[in-house]
Amino acid sequence: MGQKQIEHYFLRTSAVKPELFRKLVLFSVACFTLMWLINSIFHSLVVFNQLSYLISIIALASIYFLSVNNKVNNHTLLMLAYTVIAGFLISYSLWSHTVNQEPFLNSAQWLGLNYVMAYLFLDVKKAVPTTVIVFSITIVGHFLAIIANHSLHNTLGVVLSMGIAHTAYIALLWMVIKLRKNNEEVKQHAMTLEGYAYVDLLTHILNRRGIDKVIKDLGLNSDSNNQNYAILVVDIDHFKQVNDVHGHLIGDQILVKIASHLSRKVHPDDILGRWGGEEFIILTLNKDREKILALADYLRDTISQLDTDPVHGITASIGIGYSHEGKNTDEVFNIADKHLYTAKQIGRNRIIDSQLTH
């Protein structure tokens, strides 16, 4: 994770956090279910709602389980949930105006929610085109639905009034979003400054505090965590001798070169940090043991081939701990650290995990 990746990590924000998003989805499912029950009790459940309620509930429930299982990113799920709810509101209003003789029905009053949801839950770049598309579909769709049963004069009166009201919704929400954007810019600037507290000044990768924050943000120690992960502890062999013989300035240059090499070689989703001294830590997510060992061996081999003039023969030992081996990241790290110690004891320049012991 290089400098730009670090800044991206600490500055990237979602309009709605996954935990809140899941609560909102469950709330929406409850609302659709409640409307279904109320309409059934009072015998007002029409054929359209029988089908649309069921489709909406199934779709939102599916989105909820995708979010729980981390199968799809949060931004995509937000857009899917928005599409389900906005699609229901628009289609129900269009259907109502098609089958009823009144030019304006109560179902149209709910359509303003589509713009509120877009600006509250979607980022600005998605909210703007989304509202334009929704506005166009709403106005054109209602024109076609109303003119089927009414004169052009009455239809234009209703549609123009609706267009003005919806334009006012969008204009007011745009003002709100501009204020939110200004606040976010200030917040992001503060977060940028805070981000530097998590960066190792020498190597420009995460420091120990930064690694701890990433672990906390990922929720790897939470009861609800279902991500597999592994911790690789990478230690440069005989590094004390490098400092003693060549001086700390040369030693620092080698650390910078190795950190830069690791940043380029690990996957963008892997978390790289300097744990202290000549020790680096890599947190890799959702990989099986075979891929993790392949990564470790690749890093070990390529470190040994680095040009570290005037020092030659730089190698590294790697200890690995897996998430299923410990109750939390501290225990997994201790396992990896113990395996690193074993690697040092039996000859260095090698990889050790719970199954690979020599």
Automatic annotation (TrEMBL):
Domain GGDEF: 227-356
EC number in record: 2.7.7.65
One Pfam family recorded for the sequence: GGDEF
Stretches that traverse the bilayer: 20-38, 44-65, 77-95, 131-152, 158-177
SMART domains: GGDEF
Enzyme class (EC, first level): transferase
Catalytic activity annotation: 2 GTP = 3',3'-c-di-GMP + 2 diphosphate
Keyword tags: Membrane, Transmembrane, Transmembrane helix
SUPFAM superfamilies linked: Nucleotide cyclase (SSF55073)
InterPro entries assigned: Diguanylate_Cyclase, GGDEF_dom, Nucleotide_cyclase, Rev_trsase/Diguanyl_cyclase
Gene3D superfamilies: 3.30.70.270
PROSITE patterns: GGDEF
Protein's recorded name: diguanylate cyclase
Organism of provenance: Marinomonas phaeophyticola
